[in-house]
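Continuing from the previous page of notes. For each protein in this section, the sequence appears first, followed by its structure tokens. Read the first protein now.
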Amino acid sequence: MIQVCKEAKTIRVCAGAGCKAWGAQNILSMIKENIRRFPELEDYQLRAEKCMSRCGGGASIDMGGKIFKARDMEKAVNILFQEQLSVTTL
């Protein structure tokens, strides 16, 4: 069963030049696909941000006001499904 953080209803992925270099577009697509696959996440909104001013070290992902850095798809999946969304069980 997926764990969901009720406070994080919007997931923002930086689409600025630096984050694009870290594969932000691919990460955005992967998150979008996973949100569609899991009905527990259907009320989440996914947004691409012009720039989040958190450059360097990976693509920036903001979930519930916490910004995480993802250097690859595996890290993005871990952020989405293990680190941030493990607060409340549906």
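Done with the first. The second protein uses the same format. Note its length before scrolling.
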Amino acid sequence: MSNKYKAMVLSCIDPRFQSKVFNYLKRRKLLGKYSSFTIAGAAVGVTHKKFEKWRNTFIQNLSTSILLHKINKLIVINHIDCGAAKFANGKRKFYEIDEIKMHEDSFKKLEKLLNKKFPKLYYEFYLMNLK
């Protein structure tokens, strides 16, 4: 990320995931250079109808971060084997291919929301595998 970007990172609360996110951001030389918003499911938690009440919290936090910290980029990091994705899926069979589609759909929904509410915001979407 070039110096012209000030980022916010949206990631999942899963304890197995924290060191992977940290190490990824460290490799990108972003430590100490981003705001963090951590919520179950990351983009799934912001966009899925089962977590609809969480969306406004994220939008308000991002809006505030844009004002306070001059954020102009959002880095979204979801992961495979996500409990929030399984919860959102309900009691139906849930294979990895179904979960990947749910994450991809969450990225598309979030992109649409960001384009509407924050048209000048840059964004990146990533899906990590915990294995």
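What the second structure shows: The radius of gyration is 14 Å. The chain has a mean pLDDT of 94. We return to this in next week's lecture.
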